[in-house]
User: What shape does this take?
Amino acid sequence: MGRWMEALNKKKEIVFEMAPNFLIYCSRHLPKNIKNEFPILLNLDLHSDKWIDELQTFQSDKIYELKKEIERVRRILNREEFVPNVNSEKILKFWTTEDYKLKDINDDIYELKSFFIKSIEQNLEVKIYL
Assistant: This one.
């Protein structure tokens, strides 16, 4: 299947889906001194031991926490939240390329937030596959 994320209803039917690439690679570029403040993103890292058969499953409470974590990442990258000893410019150098700019990161985060908000509102289960 490859890296994929889907939201399922109580009948285990897929309601919507998307690629979770940003989530899987997000934690590797976070500064070491704040990584522990993003436990769910750390657990979603490609090399995390939290993957069970290349799958992680989340209910509304954890989806809400994950949404809060990616919102905080966005605020840090956009210099809307000051974190001592964190240089947003330096982080952006690792995250961006000529083809992938801050606007693209913000777009990816917006899509993820929308996905999570709809999942929470509809009380859906979210499955993330490696």
